[in-house]
Amino acid sequence: MTDVLIGTCGWTDPALLRSGWYPPGHRDAERRLRHYATRFPLAEADSPYYALPTARTTALWADRTPPGFRFDVKAFSLLTGHPTRPAALPPDLRGHPRDEALRAEIWTRYAEALAPLRDAGRLGTLLFQYPPSLTPGPEAESFIRTARERAHGWPFAVEFRNPAWWETGRTASFLSDLDATAVATDTHEGMSPVPVTTSRLAVIRFHGRSPLWRTGTKEDRFRHTYTDRELAEWLPRIRPLTARTKELHLLFNNCCADAAVKAAEVMRDLLAPSHA
């Protein structure tokens, strides 16, 4: 039977902290995460996209969560071709050319930092989110394939921010050949396809339906309060997945106050057996 795990993209967003969702006395990192893990079995760790984590940090994440809890962890920006500030790189690598040798070294350090999560059974998947500038074609496929080869043996999920990837007929088979999970999305542009490319895992990320998805500030792009009806639209697409994958991860990225945790709670209720 498929495990459907629901959570949010991050648990330390300043707007969430200000919303009052965390009980009084849960302002420190340990108590926040411990409380979050009593409410949801899944979280996305976004901070590794901006800076390489340390093994000490991920070991603490594992220690502060119960067995069965999962972290989906975003790949560091350089690994996916996003612009990366020099200050985000380790000091000894800041003068290095932005080439495959640098990405290989970054991958080695990233993997070492995530080893405690993997060893503790807390790692759901690595999430390689590729930018809109990555357009379909042989060069892009080679770039992704190289990343997958480095991450051989690791769970590997891919989200495309360029919709052209799902306008071709080969993307699902390409990801399946890589043993990579295809990440479906919900945005202002609509609901993307939900192809099952591994029997291990399916992932859907709910980014919100802001009309400023492509043009606004980060806060503007993800500001949205899902209605029950908008979430229920997904049920006919979600339920068939439970017969095709071992785990299904539903992650809410619609930031601003407690909008993401509330949407996650509504989706959990909609998927409860009493609503089936």
TrEMBL record:
<protein>
    <submittedName>
        <fullName>Uncharacterized protein YecE (DUF72 family)</fullName>
    </submittedName>
</protein>
<dbReference type="InterPro" id="IPR036520">
    <property type="entry name" value="UPF0759_sf"/>
</dbReference>
<dbReference type="Pfam" id="PF01904">
    <property type="entry name" value="DUF72"/>
</dbReference>
<dbReference type="InterPro" id="IPR002763">
    <property type="entry name" value="DUF72"/>
</dbReference>
